[in-house]
Specification:
about 25% strand; seven-stranded mixed β-sheet
Length: about 180
């Protein structure tokens, strides 16, 4: 029954990130495809759960952005964190990060294999590199996707004004 609805939906555009057909694993240990987010605005970034600086700030920026959304858009939007760390970020590690960060059901925490992570990072324009200590240096980029999985807005940097990104989420929520 889940797949019949997807098959009857209009085809995705060539610009849709939902064309990326990698299968991810959620912090609940369940398989997850990005296309299941179709029809709602998405705020997405890449991170790793053991990060001591940039990633917690990115999550905080996403939380601040969420607070700026009108209630009806906030209820519809999803906030997606995809891990770079294919070794350490197990579903359990992601679940612990969710609990530590106080993230509710609007948040989707995902892990994938190296190919999936590399491909998504490339599609998003996020650069990352693992160092000798297993930490990652990476871009601090939030991406807003519209309901069709197309990039509607990008916000680079940490701790700045998120109001323009919040406006982009509202606009993305109104697109058919």
């Amino acid at each position: 029954s889940c797949c019949a609805a997807e098959e009857s939906a209009a085809p995705l555009s060539a610009r849709s990130l939902y064309q990326h057909d990698a299968v991810w694993t959620s912090d609940a240990g369940e398989l997850f495809a990005l296309v299941t987010l179709r029809g709602r605005p998405v705020v997405l970034t890449m991170f790793f759960a053991s990060c001591g600086y940039a990633c917690p700030v990115l999550v905080s920026d996403m939380q601040r952005l969420r607070e700026l959304l009108p209630a009806e858009v906030r209820a519809e939007a999803k906030f997606v964190l995809v891990s770079f760390d294919t070794e350490r970020d197990t579903p359990e590690a992601l679940r612990e990060f969710r609990e530590r960060s106080g993230l509710d059901e609007a948040w989707v925490l995902l892990r994938g294999d190296e190919d999936a992570v590399q491909e998504l990072a490339m599609l998003l324009g996020i650069k990352f590199k693992r160092d000798a200590n297993g930490q990652f240096s990476h871009s601090s980029l939030l991406t807003i996707l519209d309901g069709e999985g197309e990039i509607a807005h990008r916000r680079n940097g940490l701790m700045g004004d998120v109001s323009e990104a919040a406006r982009a989420v509202v606009v993305a929520a109104t697109r058919p």
